């Protein structure tokens, strides 16, 4: 669940954030801010199925339109599993790795 910058700006520092689908569904389901702006589901399992469906459709669209697989981790400078990390921890890792990338 990331944008298109990694492809559109090839000289950029490209980050791929991933998360266990069960954790993602729980986060979205319990996030009151998202629940007011996105479709509401009765269960976490319904939320999970929606995430999986949207992810699949987005991947198919990127492949069809641009001939690229956005989920191919080799496209990125940093691949970070956020499943067990806080937002602050994620930001810290990205900042640290970005500084290393700049030095190359």
Structure description:
The chain has 104 residues and is mainly alpha-helical. It has a single domain (5-103), classed as P-loop containing nucleotide triphosphate hydrolases (Rossmann fold), CATH 3.40.50.300. The chain has five helices and two strands. The chain has helices at residues 5-8, 21-30, 32-37, 44-66, 87-103, and strands spanning 15-18, 78-81. The protein has a two-stranded parallel sheet. Helix 2 (21-30) crosses helix 4 (44-66). The model has no long low-confidence stretch (mean pLDDT 89).
Q: Give me the CATH architecture, please.
A: 3-Layer(aba) Sandwich
Quaternary state of the chains = single chain
Total beta strands: 2
Average pLDDT rating? 89
Shape: globular
> Any idea what the radius of gyration is?
15 Å
Number of domains: 1
Give the count of helical stretches.
5
The CATH topology is Rossmann fold
CATH superfamily label: P-loop containing nucleotide triphosphate hydrolases
CATH class: Alpha Beta
Q: In which range does the helix fraction lie?
A: 55-70%
Helix and strand succession? HEHHHEH
Spans where pLDDT lies below 50 across 5 or more residues: none
Distance between the termini: 27 Å
Proportion of residues in extended strands: 5-15%
**Structural class based on helices, strands and sheet pairing:** mainly alpha
**Strand line-up in the sheet with most strands:** 1-2
Q: Mind summarizing the main beta sheet?
A: 2 strands, parallel
């Amino acid at each position: 669940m990331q944008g298109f910058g990694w492809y559109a700006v090839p000289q950029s520092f490209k980050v791929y954030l991933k998360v266990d689908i069960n954790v993602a569904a729980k986060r979205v389901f319990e996030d009151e801010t998202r629940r007011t702006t996105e479709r509401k589901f009765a269960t976490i399992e319904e939320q999970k199925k929606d995430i999986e469906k949207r992810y699949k459709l987005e991947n198919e669209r990127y492949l069809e339109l641009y001939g690229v697989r956005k989920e191919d981790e080799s496209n990125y400078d940093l691949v970070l599993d956020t499943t067990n990390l806080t937002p602050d921890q994620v930001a810290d890792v990205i900042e640290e790795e970005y500084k290393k990338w700049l030095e190359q």
